[in-house]
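User: As part of a screening pipeline, I want to sanity-check one entry by hand. Below is the sequence and the SMILES for magnesium ion. Please return the complex as structure tokens so I can compare it with the automated output.
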Amino acid sequence: MKLKSNKNMFALIMDKLGSWSLLILIGVVMAFANSKFLTSSNILNVLRQIAVVTIGAVGVSFVILGGGFDLSTGMIATFAGCNSAALIVNHGWPILPAMLFAIAIGVVIGSINGVLITHMKIAPFICTLGMQYVVNGLILVTTKSVPITGLPEAYLYLGRGFIFDVFPVPVAIMLLFVLVGHILLKYTIFGRSIIAIGENEVAAKLSGLNVNLVKVAMYAFCGFCVSCAGIVLAARLSSGQPTSGADLSLQAIAAVYIGGTFQGSVVNTMAGALVWGFMNNALNLMNVNAYWQKVALGIIIIIAVLFDAFRAKLAMQKKS
Amino acid sequence: MENILKLTQINKSFPGVKALSDVNLTVKKGEVHALVGENGAGKSTLMKIISGAYKKDSGTVWFDGKEIENTTPKQSEMMGISIIYQELNLIERISVAENVFIGRYPMKHGMVQWKKMYQDAQKLFDEYELKMDAHSLVRSLTMAQKQMVEIIKAVSINAKIIIMDEPTSSLSGKETESLFRIIRKLKSRGVAVVFITHRLDEIFEICDHMTVLRDGHYVGERDIKDITKDEMITMMIGRELTQQYPERTNPIGEVTLAVKNITDGSSRVKNVSFEVHKGEVLGFYGLVGAGRTETMRMIFGVDPLAGGEIFINGEKHVIRSPRDAIHFGMGFVTENRRDEGLFLRSSVRVNTVMVALRKILKKGFINYRIEADVAKKYVDMLHTATPSIDQKTMFLSGGNQQKVVLSKWLFSDSDIIIFDEPTRGIDVGARREIYEIINALVADGKTVVMISSDMEEIMGVSDRILVMYEGTIAGEIQKEDFSQDLITKYAVGERSVRV
Ligand SMILES: Nc1ncnc2c1ncn2[C@@H]1O[C@H](COP(=O)(O)OP(=O)(O)OP(=O)(O)O)[C@@H](O)[C@H]1O
Ligand SMILES: [Mg+2]
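Assistant: Here is the complex for your manual check:
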């Protein structure tokens, strides 16, 4: 009996904390292992490193929780970074219109993904894989594969600036996206619909939800988030780099899955990104060879997903 | 006769719920044993303990003279315990025969003998006089046919005891007859059957003995020949139920929904026309496959119309999606709650508000307080047995899941509500509550269309009955002319009139 109630406690804690418990674990271990780990400069540094991925992952969370998938996000992000840079540097546009236009292009690409997937019934994986190549090609055509440098200070501020000289601007932007994403997902009809569709599309349709529109909107929203991420990335790199965002798609997906999709939320996705970021950092601090770091990070993804499946199983184990 | 199965002092808890407390059950060889009780009484839980799907907290299980402890479903199957779960467990993408023999395909030299498998499966269907092609894919079958496949699968194991958890809930009269034929055959071979149902008449027809559970407790057992239906109900719900179908006196008003010549383009729905009035309950009877659900799905915009017109309050409307239908004031309580009604991973509260999300908004944002109040209101109103409104619906008993589906449509406040088998899997007490809700709806000036395969229910609840046969409306019967005989004649196509 004793054992059983312990197990239930454990299940409850897992259910509530999810991947935050992984984060706590890393924090506790590293606090003992390395004195540099728990310093504010180190923490802010990690937050700065994960900001771009997290901003994009907010959008990717919506898509994955809604039962979809998006592989094209890295390219959409890169495209937005390059487009905004090109408009400013090569065409003399003011900063804000240039950014808005670049983001709008990202939203359009996301919507095209959405329409192809919902109305033409193409599998999301393949559709966005195709889109990834299309956008990659467009980037190479428009930039001729040359980085666009010479961005104005105000632009760079988004990626390199500090608020009151201490708090990194990209981290502030990340927190804003997480907050807005969280509110959208938990407190609006749009968010509710996404969760419902991800869970049971047939029932969602029969309950009168506008399934097709919501699905297109969720890909469009994803396009929006990753385009913003791409601009912050360009600002951090001080240039529109045609090859900069290649890894972003998979990192964002990893963040969502590490955060957990069983009872997914935007806040959990942030936890996922944090786990990734701090793990990276911990390996660096411990001077682990860069090649082995990759191995370790890959293992983390797999462990995290196993962990999520385990949570799901704990929550459902009373089911036959 | 000797006992095949004996359970004593079984206890089982789930987080927040004590599902079984000191329950006893004794089943004799060759006996058809009814297990009855309200929704959430613990029937399915007890059966899953026997099959090994759940582990008991305490108590003993004797089977075939031996005490058995912590078996897995596979082990208990090998010992001769076969179970048909309340919810269908077939794999949709493979054939009927593969489903029947899943996990025990006939093998030779490490290869599956497909031909033998199809032949064996077909032999089984033929033996039990069921019309079924062993090659057909499960996903092309109706709910009733799927249920029959589950039954054949359970029978094919050559078990000593077969547990049937509400096998008839999605069957109509004719298929139920086939099932009873199968049960009689099993019985004559000395196989024991545990039979769970909420349709009490079936118990009198097929069972020998019964055990009653209430709130997870053992209430008592009786021989069927020594008990009346009223006594049975009193044992189940702990009080008397005077009248199963409450009276209704509200006036019937003008036409609210009119359907003219709708057709689905194939032969499932052919030129169906009918009208329903404000304040009226229109019953749809028919055998499974007569096209009732298909008709309603078209009206509700789930499936496209190939022809015909739909008028709501005298105005012609084109309904392209359930969303349109809801917009025009319709609601549709679907038959298949697990696939079409519920979000199983979501809580009772989330499910309750799903159709009418707008109603829980405050300043444009979802308000969790309102949501909780709404969910609580419907849990209280329908007496849904759940530890809290935050419980995931997958953990509710079948009947209580159905109540959650009902709540969601009641909360959406539709004017025209289509109920497709609304009392499927619902206990007698709760049925009466649903009939009262239907009465309250029509008294409130709403329109109700109800599909039911339960003859007694359709006659008890409807003001008028339409009987469908092979995609057409075979007959219309006014309240004063209701008779089982007449309805059956229309339903089997022996008689028909153009309406
Ligand atoms: N896996 C589970 N987790 C938590 N609670 C459960 C689980 N399974 C069943 N319960 C609870 O145990 C109680 C008994 O459920 P059970 O399914 O045995 O009822 P039942 O008698 O079969 O009802 P019905 O007639 O509605 O099918 C219910 O209160 C139900 O909510
Ligand atoms: Mg049950």
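Points to compare against the pipeline: The mean pLDDT of chain B is 90. The radius of gyration of chain B is 23 Å.
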